[in-house]
């Protein structure tokens, strides 16, 4: 199950994010999305969990839970929408 995690503290690292979800089951991966230019966190990420039921439990338990001083926004990730490509100048 692919899970969207928003409102992540800028100080949180991927291993801490993974540890928060590991309490509810097996985590395949945890990624925090970063800005290409600066390398800073964009404040959201994705966690992939092997088991659907464990993922659903993690979503229910962690949505709204405070982590590093910020309440997480957690839900099942939607498929990425195709965006029209912009010309690069």
Q: How is this structure best described in words?
A:
The chain has a four-stranded antiparallel beta sheet with strand order 2-3-1-6, with helices on one face. It has a two-stranded antiparallel ribbon with strand order 4-5. The chain is α+β, with helices and mostly antiparallel strands. It has helices spanning 14-22, 52-62, and strands at residues 2-6, 27-34, 41-49, 66-67, 70-71, 73-76. Helix content is 22%, strand content 34%. The chain has one domain (2-76): 2-Layer Sandwich (Alpha-Beta Plaits), CATH 3.30.70.
CATH second-level architecture: 2-Layer Sandwich
Count of DSSP H/I helices: 2
Instruction: Tell me the total number of β-strands.
Output: 6
Q: Which class best fits the helix and strand makeup?
A: alpha+beta
Indicate how many domains the architecture comprises.
Answer: 1
Q: N- to C-terminal separation?
A: 38 Å
| Poorly predicted tracts of residues | none
User: In what range is the share of β-strand residues?
Assistant: 25-35%
- Portion in helices: 10-25%
Q: Which sheet architecture does the biggest sheet show?
A: 4 strands, antiparallel
CATH class: Alpha Beta
Rg: 14 Å
Look up the CATH topology. Answer: Alpha-Beta Plaits
- CATH 4th-level superfamily: RRM (RNA recognition motif) domain
The helix/strand series, from N terminus to C terminus, equals EHEEHEEE
Mean pLDDT across residues:
93
How are the strands of the largest sheet arranged? 2-3-1-6
Overall morphology? globular
């Amino acid at each position: 199950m692919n899970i969207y995690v928003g409102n992540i503290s800028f100080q949180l690292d991927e291993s801490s994010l993974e540890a928060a979800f590991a309490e509810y089951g097996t985590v395949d991966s945890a990624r925090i999305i970063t800005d290409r230019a600066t390398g800073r966190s964009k404040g959201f990420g994705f966690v992939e969990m092997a088991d659907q039921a464990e993922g659903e439990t993690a979503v229910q338990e962690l949505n709204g839970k405070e982590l590093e001083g910020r309440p997480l926004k957690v839900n099942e990730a939607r498929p990425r929408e195709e965006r029209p490509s912009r010309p690069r100048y």
